[in-house]
Amino acid sequence: MKMKFAAIASVLPLFLCAPLAAQVVPNGLENTAGNSNIGALVGNQRPARHQQVYAGSEVTPGTITSIYFRQDEIFGTTAASCTLTNATVILSSTTADIDALSATFADNLGADATVVFQGDLVMSSTDTTSVPRPFEFHIPFTTPFTFDPGAGVNLVVDITLPDPDPDIPCVGFPVIDREYHPTDGVSSAFCFNGSCSPTFDTASSTETSGIVTLFAQDIFSDGFESGDTTRWSSSVP
Ligand SMILES: [Ca+2]
Ligand SMILES: [Ca+2]
Q1: How many CB atoms lie within 10 A of CB 105?
Q2: Statement: residue 221 has pLDDT above 60
Q3: How many alpha carbons fall within 13 Å on the CB side of residue 66?
Q4: Which ligand is closest to the CA of 34, given by its number?
Q5: Which residues are placed with Cβ below 5 angstroms of ligand 1, an ion?
Q6: Residues measured by CB to lie within 5 Å of ligand 2, the ion
C-alpha cells in the first residue's frame, strides 16, 4: 500500500494524500450518540457471531484498514478491556438489502469476502464520561479491504467469536453504542451465547439495529482513492 502511495505521489506531486480518512456509519452520528446499545459481542455473551450490513451509499469507496466501535453513552460507565480469543473478522460486499439480511450468514457474503483479522482481539476503552464516547474499541486489519460499490451493493462486517466467555475475563463491563432506526443505513443478524449453532452458520435474530461504526480508510484528500489512479471521487471528504 505504501508503495502505491509513493508511486502515485511521484506522478502527481501537487496532490497531497491523507493516508487516513474516517467515516461514521450510520452517517450523521459522528457527534451524536446512538439511541440504543448492545452489551454482548465485546462483553460477556460469547460464543457469538454478529453480521452487520452498511448501506453502500453511506460508505465512501476506498480501502478500509480498520474499524472502531465506541462505548454506549449511558451504560458504558466503566473502563473496559476484553481479549476476544480466536476472533475472525470478515468484510464483504453484499447484494443483501438493508433490513433484509438472511438468517443464513453465508447468504449475506459476496464473492469478495475477505478475512481481515484473525486471532486474539483486544478491545479496550477508557473514556467513561464523554457523550458520545470516543471510538476506542479498535479492530485493526491485517488485510485491508477495498470497497468499491456499484448500484445496490452494500457492505457487510462479519465477526465470529467462537470461544465461550470467560476464556479471558473482561476488565470492566463494556457496552457498545448502537442505533435503532428502521430506515437508516444499518441492520444486523446475530447469534449470542447458547443461540449459535456449533458451526455458527445461522442467526438467531435479525433486527434493524446496528452498531455505530467508524471506518478508517486510505483515501487521498484530493479524491484519488488508494491504489486507484483512474477514479476521481468528488464525495471524498
Ligand atoms: Ca447509545
Ligand atoms: Ca436500521
Answers
A1: 23
A2: no
A3: 14
A4: 1
A5: 33-34, 37, 72, 177
A6: 181, 184, 187, 208
